[in-house]
Amino acid sequence: MTQRVLTTALGDYPHTASLQDTPTLRLERVSVKPVNLAFPPMVRQRRYDVCEMAIATVLMAKEAGIGLTMLPVVMAQRYQEGAMVCPIDSPIRGPADLVGKRVGVRSYSQTTGMWLRGIMADSHGVAPESVAWTTFEDAHVPTFRDPPFVTRAAPGSDIAGMLRAGELDAAIFGFEVPAGMRTVFPDPAAAARDFQARYGFKPVNHLVVVKSELVQEPGLVDELLAMFGGATTTRDALAPAIALANRFCVAQGLTSRALTTEEVWS
Q1: Looking at domain 4-78+203-265, which CATH architecture does it have?
Q2: What sign for the dihedral angle of Cα 64, 65, 67, 68?
């Protein structure tokens, strides 16, 4: 029996550590750390057969006509409010105080930034264009250009260094709060409960995509979904998160229009 081999770029999680090959399918794992470094080559060159990918990047890539198909497999999800920080002694007391302020984010298309800008607009009246955003790298989709209210930091600049130097008022980081900083949301756990109550789900950050032509191979997608086990869900279960991400992306200029359900999953 011939075993199909798929080059695969995934982050390190309990649900990826337990992935088991089958007699007919083997995932050849490529180590990319952090995993977001796999996103540009997957979008621009389709370097891997299977790849973890941020939801904002997926929607942008789908609109751009890139041959990637999303699977209902969740790699990472979290409430976002703890990712936005400011100096401990900052006069900022909450997200509403960010109007007119300088906020740093790795990329304007970063999915955590997309979720946070949407939360700020929906729940705190802070429109994306009312903040002076500073970015440090391009979007993964090469045709995207930052909106006019976004400024690119000088080459070699560091987001944490600019924040400590007072060149930024706040910034979006990952899971950790840097020394000397505190969260912009005064109670991130309470804000997370508010998000859950308002929208009914935990935000999805990363899903899994495959090269679109693989979907045509009989049984391959079904076998992949079975391999991912508990990380696999359904399109219906993901529908509320996809719909909100779709709306946020349009409102923030990441996409020009809302994609249909058929386009999202095609």
Answers
A1: 3-Layer(aba) Sandwich (3.40)
A2: positive
Per-residue pLDDT of the chain (266 residues; tens, 9 = 90+): 688 999 999 999 999 988 999 999 999 999 999 999 999 999 999 999 999 999 999 999 999 999 999 999 999 999 999 999 999 999 999 999 999 999 999 999 999 999 999 999 999 999 999 999 999 999 999 999 999 999 999 999 999 999 999 999 999 997 677 889 999 999 999 999 999 999 999 999 999 999 999 999 999 999 999 999 999 999 999 999 999 999 999 999 999 999 999 999 98
Other residues' Cβ atoms within 10 Å of the Cβ of residue 143: 10
CATH fold, domain 81-199, is D-Maltodextrin-Binding Protein; domain 2 (3.40.190)
Q: Which helix (H) or strand (E) holds 103?
A: strand 102-105
- Say which DSSP state 22 is in: B
- Pairing type for strands 181-183 and 102-105 reads unpaired
Nearest to 11 by CA among 64, 69, 75: 75
Q: Which of 152, 138, 85, 149 is nearest to 107 (CA)?
A: 138
Reduced to 3 states (helix: H, G, I; strand: E, B; else coil), residue 27 is strand
Strand order in the sheet with 170-172: 150-152, 132-135, 102-105, 170-172, 84-87, 181-183
**CB contact set of 100 (below 8 Å; sequence gap of 6+):** 130, 131, 132
Domain boundaries along the sequence of the chain? 4-78+203-265, 81-199
Instruction: Measure the CA–CA gap between 89 and 141, rounded to whole angstroms.
Output: 37
